[in-house]
Amino acid sequence: MKTLEIQGTIRASIGKKETKALRNEGLVPCVLYGGGENLHFGVEEKLLNTLIYTPSAHIVLLNLDGKVHKAVIQASQFGPVSDRTIHVDFVRISDDKKVAIDVPITIVGSSDGVKQGGNLQLLFRKIRVSAIPANLPDSVVVDITGLDMGKSMFVSEIVADNYDILTPKTAVVATVKMTRAARGAAATEKK
């Protein structure tokens, strides 16, 4: 899994007034949970945007006043009008404990249903997996080679190596729907 380092400064005081002053300086208030002590800190919005606005999943090395913490994003909040990042929660991870994280799906192969004029619909862009940090995949590969028209691929059909899939096994990952043009062509063939 990809690793990204982010610099931050620990906040001495917390509260509404201090948080507003922090945002006015161009920083985003963040919290690091886990490991006993919760740390409140601020990070430049540009640095967080490279982490948040990407389809990839990352392990984050938080450099807070010279001390490095390994973490992943737990939650992020956005402004209702400006859509700017207003708060991010991180959770500490360790090399020997499993962590649950959303990982992007990569589609490989060529579906027979798409070749026949069907439309491939991807119902999940990310899937939740659990593993120790060393075994976390960059993406989960889904092979759609045998997917015919009107058929669906379920989470239970995904092969997982060194990690567990936490998304329900009955959830549909991808399906091939018949387009109007394909329906029209099938109707004319029957006549």
UniProtKB/TrEMBL annotation:
GO molecular function: 5S rRNA binding; structural constituent of ribosome
Single GO cellular component term: cytosolic large ribosomal subunit
Superkingdom of origin organism: Bacteria
Entry-linked Pfam families: Ribosomal_L25p, Ribosomal_TL5_C
Domain named Large ribosomal subunit protein bL25 L25: residues: 6-90
Keyword rRNA-binding in annotation: yes
GO biological process entries: translation
Keyword line: Ribonucleoprotein, Ribosomal protein, RNA-binding, rRNA-binding
Domain Large ribosomal subunit protein bL25 beta: 98-179
InterPro entries according to UniProt: Rbsml_bL25/Gln-tRNA_synth_N (IPR020056), Ribosomal_bL25/Gln-tRNA_synth (IPR011035), Ribosomal_bL25_b-dom (IPR020057), Ribosomal_bL25_C (IPR037121), Ribosomal_bL25_long (IPR001021), Ribosomal_L25_dom (IPR029751), Ribosomal_uL5_bac-type (IPR020930)
Signal peptide positions on this chain: none
CDD domains noted in UniProt: Ribosomal_L25_TL5_CTC
Family: Belongs to the bacterial ribosomal protein bL25 family. CTC subfamily.
NCBIfam families: bL25_bact_ctc (TIGR00731), PRK05618.2-2 (NF004132)
Quaternary structure, from the entry: Part of the 50S ribosomal subunit; part of the 5S rRNA/L5/L18/L25 subcomplex. Contacts the 5S rRNA. Binds to the 5S rRNA independently of L5 and L18.
Function: This is one of the proteins that binds to the 5S RNA in the ribosome where it forms part of the central protuberance.
Protein name per the record: Large ribosomal subunit protein bL25
Source organism of this protein record: Williamwhitmania taraxaci
Gene, per the UniProt record: rplY
